[in-house]
Amino acid sequence: MAARSAALTGGALLVAILTSGCMAVEENPLNVNSPREDQQNVSSFQQTPEDFGDDPLNLAENGANLCTAQPSVGYQEFTVLVHNEALETFTIDGVSLADPQGLTLIKAEISAANREGHHKAHGGDEGGHGTHSAEAAPVTPEAEPAGPVVPVPANGYNITTHEYVNLVVSISIAEGAEAGTAQGIDVAYSTGDQEFAGTHPLVIELTRGGCA
């Protein structure tokens, strides 16, 4: 009888040990011993540089052809609406004219986006005209950030996620020329150690006498 009790006790102890071992395998929420490839999949949802593409600010969209006379102040301003749709902040590193002929970029600034749209030439004696009408900026002061109220230099400006801003370039005709053209506006920008470049296809013709 004692031998039978000892046997039962030993059997119960063995079952308890086996059961405890099974529970240890089931209770492993951290996957401590999981295969290496499974652990690497944890970072698969993180954004990679390839996700941004070559031009995450989509500067190559919505081009136009504009011609206007240079006003008496000696330069003309052109406005381009920029919208950052990415989940990242981008810093503007440089703005220049694409293939300028007889034109000089005086300055480039960032100002608050407005409902007058982009591709606006203002401050001149004659209004600019292009291949299509100005596009309204889909933004209200309550909805999305819309850039600084007072214009600031474009170089070094951080365009935050979902922010709308106006990129305003001041352009003048080079000394000794009667007119000039540019094939767009080049913008270099970056985030972290990633660099990007985009050309906004705003073809500009600036004259001293007026457009035909």
Automatic annotation (TrEMBL):
Region feature (Disordered): 32-54, 115-148
PROSITE patterns: PROKAR_LIPOPROTEIN
Compositionally biased tracts (Low complexity): 134-148
Compositionally biased region (Polar residues): 32-49
UniProt key word tRNA processing: no
Signal peptide, first to last residue: 1-24
Keywords: Signal
Protein name: Lipoprotein
